[in-house]
TrEMBL record, chains A, B:
Belongs to the FAD-binding oxidoreductase/transferase type 4 family. SUPFAM superfamilies: FAD-binding/transporter-associated domain-like, FAD-linked oxidases, C-terminal domain. InterPro entries: FAD-bd_oxidored_4_C, FAD-bd_PCMH, FAD-bd_PCMH-like_sf, FAD-bd_PCMH_sub1, FAD-bd_PCMH_sub2, FAD-linked_Oxase-like_C, FAD-linked_OxidoTrans_Type4, Oxid_FAD_bind_N. Signal peptide: none annotated. This is FAD-binding protein. GO terms for molecular function: FAD binding; oxidoreductase activity. Its cofactor is FAD. The keyword Cell wall biogenesis/degradation does not apply. It holds the Pfam family FAD-oxidase_C.
Amino acid sequence: MFSNALIKEFKAIVGKQNVLQKEADRQAYAYDAAVLDPVVPAMAVCPTTSEELGKVVRLCNENGIPLTPRGSGTNLSGGTIPEKKGIVLLTNALNKIIEINAQDLYAVIQPGVVTAQFAAEVARHGLFYPPDPGSMAVSTLGGNVAENAGGLRGLKYGVTKDYVMGVDFFDVTGELVKSGSRTVKCVTGLNLSALQVASEGILGVFNEIVLKLVPPPAANKAMMAVFDDIDKASETVAAIIAAHIVPCTLEILDNSTIKYVEDYTRAGMPVTAQAILLIEVDGHPAQVAEEAEKVVSICKTAGAVDVQAARDEAERNKLWEARRAALPALARARPTTVLEDATVPRSQIPAMIRAINEIAKKHRLEVGTFGHAGDGNLHPTILCDKRDTREFERVEQAVDEIFDVALSLKGTLSGEHGIGLAKAKWLEKETSAATIAYARALKTAVDPKGILNPGKIIGG
Amino acid sequence: MFSNALIKEFKAIVGKQNVLQKEADRQAYAYDAAVLDPVVPAMAVCPTTSEELGKVVRLCNENGIPLTPRGSGTNLSGGTIPEKKGIVLLTNALNKIIEINAQDLYAVIQPGVVTAQFAAEVARHGLFYPPDPGSMAVSTLGGNVAENAGGLRGLKYGVTKDYVMGVDFFDVTGELVKSGSRTVKCVTGLNLSALQVASEGILGVFNEIVLKLVPPPAANKAMMAVFDDIDKASETVAAIIAAHIVPCTLEILDNSTIKYVEDYTRAGMPVTAQAILLIEVDGHPAQVAEEAEKVVSICKTAGAVDVQAARDEAERNKLWEARRAALPALARARPTTVLEDATVPRSQIPAMIRAINEIAKKHRLEVGTFGHAGDGNLHPTILCDKRDTREFERVEQAVDEIFDVALSLKGTLSGEHGIGLAKAKWLEKETSAATIAYARALKTAVDPKGILNPGKIIGG
């Protein structure tokens, strides 16, 4: 597709072995974790240094070649689906942890560092990097920043954006833009780092990222509360927050999810329960003890039929493994798993869950709902088969209606999965035509040829 | 300066009484808290509703009239110095607290709400809004967001940007752009809210802001540690952080500042001390007790000659009043007070303080240094007389050198005071030509006529 001369230029920058043109390679980068049709790119390029990265970007811009940066491709919104005539720009070889500064509580990393490996390395320095997206075992930090990845600890610790102190990135011409700082406070210039977060690669290509670290909590306590009525479970969530307890994690699983998880893990989940809350508090040992006691009491008052606290690390791990099994367990049930991300102010969780179940019933769909109840971020997961076009039409109608309800409850389309290609068409409903025009004006200003991950978020 | 027809149009939008054309009014809005020459605007306009605000912006754009949004004008970088042929857009009448949602831990406000009044109202709802810039008694939240205001609690609680969940703003044509959400997590569209934070009014005019609230800490403990050597004080800061204690406030005052504060307040400060640290820990009572004990022990080990803990709220207030008196006390000494904002990674505080003192000596200037040692944000304050041109040249050289040292220590030009007009010329030194070009491209894209607070941050 590209001229031999052009391919030679790519090879001159990154080396022959890092220009991937084989059919199998191209196929491998044609899709991500979203339920969307694959698009096979012209080739994939894998720079191994900052310098090479900048040069690849410049070469693409000079030749009008669309580029899609990609870490591990775990995003759920099509953020890394490439263009047919474009390249996939792999960041996986840019995987150095450049600095972990325990005195000043920050780290500097390249975008291809794997999240879990980074978190482990930070822990070895006696510190804590809280963001824990579901895919952290394989996801890259560059991808986390590009998608503003969330996770289970969002309620207390926030999401990726809350840990980004600075981003140095290549503009479309391959020049280095510097934003943010290694300091806690920085107001030098426009907040370009924050604009890069959640920008899904449409505004620049990350070179180095400065991430905030925090001291780890001294203690934690995980609990499971079992309910025979999902309303009682969701009202418990509101009662915990009203008591001024901010758990680090506060998750909900509905009956359908519980059954699939038990079938998958045989972990001994109560399959007749209508809902389970998994709750963890952390912090100073005295605070943890006190808050755990209060949580148990709130759960019981709200009508939990059973409340169990993990007695040791093994029991705690078992609870969280069950939670992390929710998506893979549901995904086994049918050929297609449409994982949604509707998010509402947490007090609206009871209303949102009721609405999801009504919509599922109306469209004769099986939906398992689980998610981060504490921050209002639910993952209604529709189990279906995309090849059954009539069923899939009903799925699309259901998704539409789920979004409508979320917005009517003052919520948002996407809590943590991004807009990508999958949700771009709904964006105006939540914002306004002027909002999209404003975003498009910014995009066009910094990428006049439109080569940076085209089509994501704002279309075009 | 404006035609009668145009003035009539402004009056038709906001009412006659809200178009301020008198000389005294115009003079009142010619300056802010920065040491810069005043610029008298053509007039000031004071909309009282969102609708009026949007219409004023549109009218300005249609007629190419520069507009400078202004709350209380307390910023220290010239961010609200208007254009001679422009208007000042007063936000003070847009001062409604639209919603405080205790269940979902957020508030929705208009930009003209005064920070301290908002914090007090939030406290009445049993919640906590942590950002506490020095000027909070009069500053507006719109101004805080535009400048990304910091304060004394930055170390543990972050700064204004960490509390902005959403910003609805008027684009230059007067259309409403919506960004962010009332939910903890939101990745719907580009993060335009975060871009508005610290943008000093050059990218849009705020309409409504959604702010995050948190439960208040259950207990706190304030302490004062006295040192006969400033190096020991700054090393104590590093030792506290290394012990994984994150105080909510960790302030330093040098000898010069202590003397001026004592002269001003007669609070009984130890005037022979070379440095004082003011430290407050907060959180669960057991944690506070334990951390306070550790802090006392760390201070003593590091060589503090005296450590006192506030025994009650009155003693605690006395400590913080002394700290808050630092700037007014220094400002009494000489006609001009050049308050700087150099910020370094906290481990570099000893080096930064030594450098400031050397620079002061070299240029024969009196400098009092105080600030947020815990987050590396120092306020070296040069006491001088701007009318003494030879002295002021030395001041400018000293400021240059202070910035050079901060950057060489991997710090930043401005921790919390903004760039405005005052520091625009240093911006490229910290970032790069490409960074400024990128920011200018964004600005031009959303404000083609350049009417939104011209000249701030990126010049032009």
